[in-house]
Amino acid sequence: MKVLAFDCSGDILSVAVRNGDKWVEASLDLGLKHAERLMDLIDHCLSWAALKPTELDLIACTLGPGSFTGLRIGISTAKGLSLGLGLPWVGVPSLDCMAWGHDSMPGPVAPIMDARRGRVYSAIYLRGRRIGDWLDLPLAKLAALLDTYPEALVTGPDAELFEPFAAERSGLRIEARARYPSARALAVLGEERFLSEGGAQADAGPLYLRPVDADKAGPPPGRAQVG
């Protein structure tokens, strides 16, 4: 399957093109300038993969959590390309992509994204499967959850926030280079989701773990909201 995948959930823009067992992947670490650079990076990756947009079979993007603006850009681009090219698109939770590739870990894997005010977006994964709810909680509370396991791995773009807790526990590891997203994981998971569930519905939207105006309204809630 020929898949175009792009991750706009954080400050690093990541794009991948899969053509069977051949891959092209590129990232830009320029801050939240996705609206200006996304289509150029997509064109670049398609060119290197020697594919025309009309030859694609599927488009995949991240649903969130993450940057409110980045998620809207990614999903609107996926919908626009889907409509213009007559292709299906799928959305994959950002945290699923960050946890991908750690199925052999004996303990839990917790990808984290900075949610500001000492809080993080996270979820707990065991052998590749998410257990429990999406999380929007203080770092200390996530550390307490992981303390119930002999070993745990923290990954994701803001994993370094966990360094003070890792210093106090020998069984808690932080993945090196976890800051850099992998659109390759998104492409793999997107294809799996499409084959099992089909394409996204026309009204599919971002996965927000708090209201968009939460930073103005005060402390955020702890449950997921899809908007």
Annotate the secondary structure layout.
Blueprint: E1 2-7, E2 13-19, E3 22-28, H1 34-48, E4 58-64, H2 68-85, E5 89-93, H3 94-99, E6 109-116, E7 119-126, E8 129-138, H4 139-146, E9 152-155, H5 163-166, E10 172-174, H6 183-197, E11 207-208, H7 214-217, E12 225-226
Parallel strand pairs: 1-4, 4-5, 6-9, 9-10
Antiparallel strand pairs: 1-2, 2-3, 6-7, 7-8, 11-12
Characteristic terms for this protein:
227 residues; alpha/beta; Nucleotidyltransferase, domain 5; five-stranded mixed beta sheet; 7 helices; 31% helix; globular; disordered C terminus
Rounded to the nearest angstrom, the distance between the terminal CA atoms is 30 Å
Q: Summarize the amount of helix as a percent range.
A: 25-40%
The CATH architecture of the largest domain can be named as 2-Layer Sandwich
Q: Give the DSSP E fraction (strand runs of 2 or more residues).
A: 25-35%
Order of helices and strands: EEEHEHEHEEEHEHEHEHE
What number is the mean pLDDT? 89
CATH class group of the largest domain: Alpha Beta
Radius of gyration: 17 Å
Query: Helical region count?
Result: 7
How many individual β-strands?
Answer: 12
For the record, the count of structural domains works out to 2
Please summarize the sheet with the most strands. 5 strands, mixed
Query: How is the largest sheet built, in terms of strand order?
Result: 3-2-1-4-5
Q: In CATH, what is the homologous superfamily of the largest domain?
A: ATPase, nucleotide binding domain
Oligomer: single chain
User: What is the CATH topology descriptor of the largest domain?
Assistant: Nucleotidyltransferase, domain 5
Unreliably modeled segments = 214-227
Gross geometry: globular
* Structural class designation: alpha/beta
